[in-house]
Amino acid sequence: MKNTLYAFLLMTSVIIASCSDDDQAENTLFTGREVTYNLLQGSDFPVYGTVTFKERKDLSLQAVVKLEGTEGDAVHPAHMHYGDISNPDAEMALPLNDLSAKTGESLTLITKLMDETPFGYDDMMTFGGSVKVHLAATGDGKSVVLAGGNIGEDTKASSISGRVKIAVCKSE
């Protein structure tokens, strides 16, 4: 009986210690400043989710895209654009790491945009842009936006109807 009690106490201690280690790792990497934006369904596929930008202590940004409704072994390209999500001519600001359909997640560390402009948390908050996740990088799937949404300043823009138009990306 005592051995069972000791084993239980030991397992409980290990679980508690591992949870606090995760919290400590989180506290050592991040400043506590973060913002989350919704990514809305952009096609007939029932895919939606969020993108979260978290400021790291080295002042870089960690962008985490999380989608519901993805499956299989596919990878889905994701990227940030300048301008509102309804603008079909919006230039790409930054490619994000591909999203795994199996996990529905993508993680990207950001320090600057494609044009070499430094990009941190304060820049994110004043950025007028959007995030889009596509079905594929090439072929017909390139023009299919699975999910997308405005970020930064452009979250304040909305249509009178409350609906958001998601434009297909400009061909490069």
User: DSSP helix count?
Assistant: 2
What portion of the residues fall into strands of 2 or more residues?
A: 35-45%
Please name the CATH topology.
Immunoglobulin-like
The overall pLDDT, averaged over residues, is: 84
User: How do the strands line up in the largest sheet?
Assistant: 5-4-7-8-1-2-3-6
Could you state the order of secondary-structure elements as H and E?
A: HEEEEEEHEE
Class from helix and strand fractions: alpha+beta
**Structural domains: how many:** 1
Describe the structure.
The chain is an alpha+beta fold and 172 residues long. The chain has a single domain (31-156), classed as Sandwich (Immunoglobulin-like). The chain has two helices and eight strands, in the order αββββββαββ. It has helices at residues 2-29, 121-126; strands at residues 30-41, 48-56, 61-68, 75-82, 92-100, 105-110, 128-134, 145-152. It has an eight-stranded antiparallel β-sheet. A hairpin with a 6-residue loop joins strand 1 and strand 2 (48-56). The termini are far apart. The model has no long low-confidence stretch (mean pLDDT 84).
List the main descriptive attributes of the protein structure presented here:
eight-stranded antiparallel beta sheet, globular, SOD-like_Cu/Zn_dom_sf, 2 helices, 172 residues, alpha+beta, metal ion binding, Immunoglobulin-like, CHRD domain-containing protein
